[in-house]
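The passage that follows is intended for readers who have already worked through the single-chain material. We present the inputs for a multi-component assembly, then the predicted structure in tokenized form, and finally a short commentary. You are encouraged to pause after the input and sketch how you expect the pieces to fit together before reading on.
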Amino acid sequence: MNNTENKIFCKGGGCTAKLGAGVLERVLSRLPRGEKDENLLIGFDSSDDAAAYQVSDDLAIVQTLDFFPPMIEDPYLFGQIAATNALSDIYAMGGEVKTALNIVCFPETMDLNILGEIMRGGSEKVIEAGGTLAGGHSIADSDIKYGLSVMGTVHPDKILANDSGKAGDVLIFTKKLGTGLICTGNRVGEVSKEQLAGAIISMTTLNKRAAEIAKDFRVHACTDVTGFGFLGHLLEMTGPEVSAKIDTSKIKVLDGAIYCAEEFLLTAGGQRNRNHVGDKVEFVDVPFAMEEVLFDPQTAGGLLFAVDPEDADLMLSRLKQAGLPASKVGELVKKQEKDIIVY
Amino acid sequence: MITVNAMGDQCPIPVVKTKNAIKEMKKSDVVEVLVDNEIAVQNLTKMANQKGYEVTSEKKAEGAFRVEMKVEIADVAEETVAEPVVCIPDARKNTVVVISSNVMGGGDDKLGGNLLKAFIFAVTQQDELPSTMLFYNGGAKMTVNDSPALEDLKSLEAQGVEILTCGTCLNFYGLTDELAVGGVTNMYEIVERMNNASLIVKP
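Having made your guess, compare it with the prediction:
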């Protein structure tokens, strides 16, 4: 690591800093909407990841933004993670990254080299995503926050919504869970270097490759798993017609995350997620620590796909060949009493 | 009564402070924890429920909550005994099998090939399976189509053993498209798996 290590202080950063979904819904539902624009294909009435706007028969733009306070102390890695997280929403919609703008909050009195390192990490990820960093906006603030506003493109017929899965679809998830628990455990010194490194590898892996592979298969719905946790984002995939069944033996967990959960190194975000979706979930013989992993807010989490069952095996093997820790974590089923059943 | 003041602390600090206070206790007592937000109350309540402590909470004022848990000495004793057990799932036998060649041992390669096939079969018969099997250099030839051990490796994968083959090696031997079981890995992951292993088995 470099000499700027340990200089940015985190108070529970990354997606653990997200406002709870329950609080947010109360505010959003009261906002004036204005006249409906026919070209707005996806907006926040479907609680989706980003906005999609059709500009011609064969072109829609996808727009999203994401920023948060640091969850680790190395500014360069923090920049990479924040960018990986912000870019992810474009991939979750089936789009390609085109341009990105920096969003920066930084204390005036702090060493500017730290900001340089954060932005270097971010811009490297934008380049890896195939996009161009085209500008940004900076604010003097008491704490560091960093992220991106990202614009991408997609063919209007190829947009992947999060609520268009069908009963019978196989659920494939492309990353391991537990980044929130590991970062929290790390702050109180309960996580080994190796365990933190595992989480960092996961948080700096773009969802680009997974999204590209998905284009070759019949994927009915997709979301990226971030601040609302695995179950919070899975809930967005269920609806009046479908529930989801999750097999916890197929869930891949970052090394150390179960230990952190067993030691109750739990985030406020995780508990907010439990409050929001807990009563819509039926747990059948699931250990407490695994429940916590499933509610854990993820920073730069993986993509969750609802895939035609005939395509699932081949798609999974392609994802694995790309080096991703993907697995079939469950399926969508006809509507049950609960929206989600976890066993 | 023992008081833990966690006003102004964000999760998980209230839980960490409470756990530390309980660790210091010599006899049964009531522990009160003061916090300033309801989420912290909920996380403390979850911990108490999991540990089997009787727990109640009240809102004393706007932004002031009090959680009370009755910590029995038996629980504390049990906890100190149970602690290593709790650690075991994480430090659980994490055996990693490393296959670095397509033959086992030096001497005759035909014999070596047969031995390695028999070795992988014998792995499938163990009561405790490894968590991960890593294949690199000549070992990469074991996870591709035409591998003599393919069936056994598929069966291991089906039982939850992670099968990972070095991508550089597959590429070197021109076998990238022939991979028939498990996933592709890189040097970072190979080092990480070996570092975290409690036991490395190498034929």
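Commentary: Chain B has seven helices and nine strands. The longest helix of chain B spans residues 73-91. How closely did your sketch match?
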